[in-house]
Amino acid sequence: MKAIEESVHKVMMEAAEAFEVYKHISGKQKAQFLRNIGEEIVNLGDELIQTVIEETNLPEARVVGERGRTVGQLNKFADLVEEGSWKEAVIDIGDANREPLPKPDLRKMLIPMGPVVVFGAGNFPLAFSVAGGDTASALAAGNPVVVKGHPAHPKTSDLVASAIQKAIKKNDLPYGVFALVQDDGIESGKFLVQHPKAKAVGFTGSGNGGLALVKLASEREEPIPVFAEMGSVNPVVILENALKNNYSDIASKLVASVNMGAGQFCTNPGLLITIKTEGFNEFVDALSNNINEATGAQMFSPGVLRNYLVNADQVMSHETVTTIAKGDEVEPNVVRPAIATVSAADFMKNPHLHEEVFGPFSLLVVCDDTKEVKDVVASLKGQLTATLQAKDEELTKNQELIDLLVEKCGRLLLNGVPTGVEVGAAMQHGGPFPASSDSRFTSVGVGAIKRFVRPVCYQDFPDQLLPKELQNSNPLDVWRLVDNSWTKNAI
Amino acid sequence: MKAIEESVHKVMMEAAEAFEVYKHISGKQKAQFLRNIGEEIVNLGDELIQTVIEETNLPEARVVGERGRTVGQLNKFADLVEEGSWKEAVIDIGDANREPLPKPDLRKMLIPMGPVVVFGAGNFPLAFSVAGGDTASALAAGNPVVVKGHPAHPKTSDLVASAIQKAIKKNDLPYGVFALVQDDGIESGKFLVQHPKAKAVGFTGSGNGGLALVKLASEREEPIPVFAEMGSVNPVVILENALKNNYSDIASKLVASVNMGAGQFCTNPGLLITIKTEGFNEFVDALSNNINEATGAQMFSPGVLRNYLVNADQVMSHETVTTIAKGDEVEPNVVRPAIATVSAADFMKNPHLHEEVFGPFSLLVVCDDTKEVKDVVASLKGQLTATLQAKDEELTKNQELIDLLVEKCGRLLLNGVPTGVEVGAAMQHGGPFPASSDSRFTSVGVGAIKRFVRPVCYQDFPDQLLPKELQNSNPLDVWRLVDNSWTKNAI
Predict the structure, then answer these.
(1) May I ask the CATH architecture of the domain B235-414?
(2) Alpha helices (H) along A223-301
(3) Is A218 in the B-facing interface, judged by CB distances under 8 Å?
């Protein structure tokens, strides 16, 4: 066995061993642990902030904000598991006197699956990396986590891992509840996904990376689920009345959204779809002006910048595409946003114009009428989000378009911008393939915990041997579906 | 395009077209439709019963019972969608005054995914075939269904399809909401799973069949989920005190369970695990006596019988295996159950002894002590069910064994037999791989509807344009998670 494979084997075996203890700890204890991780991350103080800045070029305000989001996510999962109803306890009370056969007593709830492998994301060095949403949700569910750190921010990963390890010690949990594996190449990630003790995988990143993991996992002797969030172009459809009345406001909000964080978000609005009607020329002018006025931002690295320039240029140099405005590279590594335009017909003919350009870029697709807007939307692949810019009165007559947008996305926004993902129970961050590998789950918000659990049913078990969530007296005071009605009442 | 491919294409396009209408019909209307299907099945009267008997050799009482279960399932899904809370509405109310950024209004609920391909099962010609659990749950969710009929009961399939079609007409639904495809070979099934309009697959049957579908679906341009329920050996662990005190009762119940329906159930107890201690010899004698006294039953077909005899013989002729008792084939196509025994050490050494023998067969694994019982359980693959035969006082000291059993199964029974699957909200029929392709879902009980839906989130939509489940006034009176609390209250 090679050294890398051996060390992966060691951490996975430690994780499996830790699972035997960790799966039994109470929601209260897990909540304490998650909150402590957040506290220890804050305790890393300015060293963490400066390390992230150094490794990612992100501005300080964003890094501080992202740290807040990361700690906030940990606390939200802490609240969720402390309250306890997320386990979806379902009880069908037995009836020994039922004819012709007695009715068994059936009690079902969600249980953790085992060690989860998490791949740190490049574009969220804190909120979707070592102690990010995937880790928080897997730990909250009761699973040990092994993180493959993103090679772009190894020092950040080490620091955050040290915070988790402090929280493990403080809570007297087994060492193997968490491990960080760092590796410049792809080998350790591959061994982690292939290891028999791995039970699920969380990933945020490129389509190629995500699909490779899905393939690896499906080829295992025991296939395991991979939750790959692979980004999308997040179409924004601007209807006639909105265009006519609000073009200026829409243009400035869209350019700000495209430019935010140098466009390095999975919800970057990379595709604008509108109709050549009243206000259209003014809208294009406004886009152009906003781009020319936009301040540049640094991308994560010279490599990310290079890819962006190549990909954006490939679109803009396409014979059917016209550049609307293109911010200059004002200093090394600093880009300003760019927007280009193409006719609906040409867009639909060229599948590669449908691909995401990672960075502050958006493509404006120009349609002749609403019918063509629908054709364009129908031609799209699955998306994390879709946005509709419309006046109230034109919504009711566009139900078919709304249907089409719903079919294509996980989250449909009205008159907003897709960046700025709220972390809450109602958030859906996961759309039809290829935006995500499994559209039935979300990677943002407390619903993310559902990725790493499965139901188990106890039949005819004596009350005292059941998990507390299923006991008659409902000692944890959780919501339960008892004989098909939601209640907190005891039985 | 070949004729088969063309006809598959036609039904799938009709299903996709029907989806545009069907996805919008109310829970009340879907409930009416599902109940009408059940009524039309009953209206088929004795013709259906006799056709099933002719095609499957099942005794009349079982066929009538299975028809009752099938209609009961349809009615349960009807109740579920009429009540409406299954859509899991989650609402995080917006707050325009939140600092530093306004909080968006987020409202999420489950929506149907699109046409579902269902493979009829051989061993449940009604309850898991054309109008069985997979079809009922997919239709209840709002998806059109295309069934690939099982080649063993084509006339039954045609009759049940005609009942569904009558219900479609009665409810004025699009023709394409349901279609039956019949084919002796595997071609049409393959084209159905590969068709771009197919969004999910339901299957109950052999491991080979299920895994082939999983592979096909994962190789599509847009991979889709396959819910394959592939059976298991359903281990029954008998602890010392239970053996000593109840050996006679346990033996008679187990043999009855093995023999029920000629063992042609996916929950057939194909593996018994116990300790060579007080009562063991008496238990083996009781098994033997019960088998010798058992009445035979017909298997589905001479082909199924042949496979059973070959597979059972292969196990019984293994050098480490001893036959306890083996019922004779009393008349052509009629078998009686057989039980053989093997030591724990030999069982663990021979992986093929872990495989299911489809039919009235069970293998008794003999352990030296509880430690060895745990080793045997740890060596097992994923199972639909696991059963523990134990006295209350010995349960508390065997928490580790219970943990191991939970890890291996979807449903854990105490002092029962795994056959006789209750259809209810708390049922879990689906276990870790390879019992099922996705252990996070159940194929029996109303929870089965969750396989064919995905969440969508509406951000900042005006009330009147939201689906009713998400509107402020809660006009459908469903349970909703509003700002993290379950309630039926309006907002």
Answers:
(1) 3-Layer(aba) Sandwich (3.40)
(2) 240-259, 280-293
(3) yes
Q: Average pLDDT by consecutive 10-residue portion of chain A (491 residues)?
A: 88 97 97 98 98 95 96 97 96 94 96 97 94 98 97 97 98 98 91 97 94 94 95 95 96 94 92 96 96 89 90 95 86 87 98 94 97 98 97 91 96 94 94 95 95 97 95 97 93 94
Question: Which residue's structure tokens are 């359903």?
Answer: B234
Asked whether the beta carbons of residue A106 and residue B456 sit closer than 8 angstroms, the reply is no
Residue B328 has pLDDT above 90, yes or no: no
Question: What is the set of active-site residues of A?
Answer: 229, 266
The tens digit of pLDDT for each residue in B78-100 reads: 999 999 999 999 999 999 999 88
| CATH H-level, domain A3-230+440-481: superfamily | Aldehyde Dehydrogenase; Chain A, domain 1 (3.40.605.10)
Residue A190 CA to residue A196 CA, distance in Å, equals: 12
Helices B240-259 and B280-293, packing angle to 10 deg:
10
Token representation of residue A237:
């459809």
Instruction: Using a CB–CB cutoff of 8 Å, tell me whether B190 touches chain A.
Output: no
CB contact, 8 Å: A397 with chain B?
Answer: no
Segments making up each domain of chain B, as ranges? 3-230+440-481, 235-414
Annotated catalytic residue B229: yes
Give percent of chain B with pLDDT exceeding 90.
89
Are A104 and B416 in contact (CB < 8 Å)? Answer: yes
Residues of chain B in contact with residue A484, where contact means CB-CB under 8 angstroms, are 79, 83, 425
CA distance B328 to chain A (A): 30
Q: Which of B413, B442, B460 sits opposite A460 (nearest CB)?
A: B413
| CB-based contact B403 A437, cutoff 8 Å | no
* B266 catalytic residue (yes or no): yes
Give me the pLDDT at residue B100, please: 84
Where b means 16+ CB within 10 Å and e means fewer, B68-107 reads ebbbebbbbbbebbbbbbbbbbbbbebeeeeeeeeebbbb
- Residues facing residue B414 across a β-bridge: B388
Contacts of A107 in chain B (CB under 8 A): 426
